[in-house]
């Protein structure tokens, strides 16, 4: 069987296992500045209905950080996740290349990105390492690749 030559290169550092399970990151791998930015952004969440505050921070290849937090609506379906707020902010500021995303929420092990966010990450941040942390345990995040979070992502057929 031919080797899959279309496989995209994975980040050199902080790589998650390809089976989707997080590996235990080494202390030197953990992007503390990025996780701290996500924790700070979480304080700006607008979550009057669920009170579930989530912060996200994207790291660009140039080393810039763009943050976001979840915003809820009385029409619940209009709610937007922290990850997408951060991504939409970054994209509309002209940023395109992302190496990492941190997501912080008060939940055991952190809150995993939802399916909608995974699709957007697969499209706009496919090489990013996704760090997920409980706001009470910021130094013990879990790391995932976007490919592991959303295998066989939807793409437009040309
Ligand atoms: Zn989401």
If you had to describe this structure to a student in words, what would you say it looks like?
The chain has a five-stranded mixed β-sheet. With 158 residues, it is α+β, with helices and mostly antiparallel strands. It has helices at residues 32-42, 82-92, 115-124, 146-149; strands spanning 54-60, 65-69, 98-105, 129-134, 142-145. A hairpin with a 4-residue loop joins strand 1 and strand 2 (65-69). Mean pLDDT is 88; it is low at 1-17. The protein has one domain (30-148): Cytidine Deaminase, domain 2 (3-Layer(aba) Sandwich). Zinc ion binds at residues 81, 83-84, 113-114, 116-117.
Number of domains: 1
Strand order of the largest sheet: 2-1-3-4-5
Query: What is the averaged pLDDT score?
Result: 88
Main sheet attributes: strand count, strand direction, barrel closure? 5 strands, mixed
Which percent bin holds the helix content? 10-25%
Question: In terms of topology, how is this protein built?
Answer:
Elements: H1 32-42, E1 54-60, E2 65-69, H2 82-92, E3 98-105, H3 115-124, E4 129-134, E5 142-145, H4 146-149
The structure holds zinc ion (ZN).
Write a compact overview of the structure shown:
By secondary structure, the protein is of the alpha+beta class. 23% of the residues lie in helices and 19% in strands.
